[in-house]
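Worked Example 4.2. Consider the chain below.
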Amino acid sequence: MKVKTILVSQPEPKMENSPYSKLIDKEKIKVDFRPFIHVEGVDAKTVRAQKIDLKNYTAIILTSRNAVDHFFRIAEEMRFKVPDTLKYFCQSEAVAYYLQKYVVYRKRKIYVGKMNFIDLSVLLKKYKDEKYLLPSSDVLKPIVPETMDNLGLNWTRGIFYKTVISDLSDLRDVYYDVLVFFSPSGIESLLKNFPDFKQNDTRIAVFGNSTVKAANDAGLRIDIQAPTPETPSMTMALQRYITSVNKK
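Applying the procedure from the previous section yields the following structure tokens:
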């Protein structure tokens, strides 16, 4: 069956000429964006209940832009003046760039990984004497605490925000040819919102091993998968699939 409509379970990209824009123009298809999950910050009282005192840490590990936003939000709520000496370990260049929203970049000690947490661990290993704080959501990939513990670091995890399932009830009678997922939480949201969901002819696209597992565990048929050596991005995987089925 041809693909004419796609629902991506994430916010719409803010950048112009995103890969999705190119896909839409090339294939003349409709692509909608809708976050299946969203983030809600916890308050300073909840953070204090985790026995976290911001002045006790010499370095912050930031794995996402959400972590950046909620660390500085909590600091403000606690009336904590973030010291110039604080070291920032950012998982990727995108996170480090986003940090400029809150600090003067050239005046801070900022260390940047390439992409994933394993890459960042090479930098963390060089600074074993720091007292690290990891602001995170209530959902954390196991590789993160495992890596920190294996490095023998002095670190504390703080839950500064939570992943919450979005209300998708308005989509109950809306049909899409392809549903695109990037996390197990997205799969969970689909099943929580639509417990009677029947896949039928709907194609499921998933990104990452943990999302693949969640889809399989839910009994869903996976039709499109990324990353692979041939299709390292989701848009490339979608393009390849659409080219294959729409030319028939």
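Residues 65-77 form the longest helix (13 residues). The radius of gyration is 20 Å. Compare this with Example 4.1 before moving on.
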